[in-house]
Amino acid sequence: MSDVQVLTGPGTQSRRALLTGAGAVGAAAVLAACGGDDSGDGAGAPTTAVSPTATGGGGPAAGQPLAKTTDIPVGGGKIFAKEGVVVTQPNPSEFKGFSSICTHQNCTVSRVEGGTINCLCHGSKFSIIDGSVKTPPATRPLPPREIKLTGDQISLA
């Protein structure tokens, strides 16, 4: 094989030029998907995000049991994505409710561990105590959600 390239007609490109162009287009698409600002207007938000007010059609209505207090670990929490809420227990018998929608780009938070509510979309972490931002890129805290305790049952207020 030689390095000589023979172009046979108008508008023809070498294989190298074609692959380079395709790679540039792919890189641009990846960067556009990961980029964005923290304007909070929802532009560029993932289509799989759950609205903070959505119940997903199958979640408990206000007043209906969401979980038992024993389902929420002390120093941790549990995410109820369909209901749009995270319930935490920062200290024994102290329960808090927060939106499960990350304030950075509207992804649903993914985990509660190590004293934080974590969004794996871009790495934001929020306090289980008050929803404040512990690790950016989010700049706003998770909004509180009203929950109610009745005996050992936790429900949306």
Count of helices? 1
How many beta-strand segments?
Answer: 10
Q: Order of strands across the biggest sheet?
A: 5-6-7-8
Query: How large is the share of residues in beta strands?
Result: 25-35%
Q: What can be said about the biggest beta sheet?
A: 4 strands, antiparallel
Distance between the termini: 74 Å
How much is the average pLDDT? 77
The portion of residues assigned to helices is 10-25%
Report Rg: 23 Å
Give the H and E element order. Answer: HEEEEEEEEEE
> Given the C-alpha coordinates, what overall shape results?
elongated
Low-confidence blocks of residues: 27-57
Structural class: alpha+beta
Describe the protein.
The chain is of the alpha+beta class and 157 residues long. Helix content is 13%, strand content 27%. It is built from 1 helix and 10 strands; from the N terminus they run αββββββββββ. The chain has one helix at residues 15-34; strands spanning 65-68, 76-80, 85-91, 94-99, 111-113, 116-118, 125-127, 133-135, 147-150, 153-156. The strands form 3 sheets. Strands 5-6-7-8 form a 4-stranded antiparallel beta sheet, with no helix packed on it. A 3-stranded antiparallel beta sheet has the order 1-10-9, with no helix packed on it. A 3-stranded antiparallel beta sheet has the order 2-3-4, with no helix packed on it. The longest helix is centred in the first third of the chain and has 20 residues, at 15-34. It is elongated, with a radius of gyration of 23 Å. Mean pLDDT is 77; it is low at 27-57.
